[in-house]
Amino acid sequence: MTNGLTRIQRGRLRASGIDQYFETVITSEACGIAKPDPRILKLALERLGVSPREAVYVGDDPAVDLAAARGAGIAFVWIDRGCHPAPAGRSHRRVTHLGEVEGLLV
User: Fold this and answer.
1) Sheet harboring 75-79: ordered strands across?
2) Class for domain 6-104, per CATH?
3) Mean pLDDT of 11-30
4) Exposure string over 15-51, b if 16+ CB within 10 A, otherwise e
5) Best CA proximity match to 1, nearest among 63, 68, 53, 49
6) Residues 53-62: pLDDT tens digits?
7) Residue 57 in contact with residue 26, Cβ under 8 Å?
8) In the chain, where do the E strands start and end?
9) What are the structural domain ranges in the chain?
């Protein structure tokens, strides 16, 4: 789920060799909704057949991603790459790379 263009995002997944791991790819271009609007996350939940309590949203822009996750009632994990200030409050978990996310899901 991304605020990107479908062609670009699918190309990135293919180029990185991970496209086969994604059954569902939702772009703001394709659905007409962009983060921080939580409806894009709710659409992702619907297409995946999971509830907000069963999901975790991982994002790198707290101004957009955390707001969308909160609005959709989904737990949020922030990937801190040093590009954005830390979000206020304690309603999220912080990691510095994707490899850390798995340990949070246990």
Assistant:
1) 56-59, 75-79, 92-95
2) alpha beta
3) 93
4) eeeeeeeeeebbbbeeeebbbbbbebbbbbbeeeeee
5) 68
6) 999 999 988 8
7) no
8) 56-59, 75-79, 92-95
9) 6-104
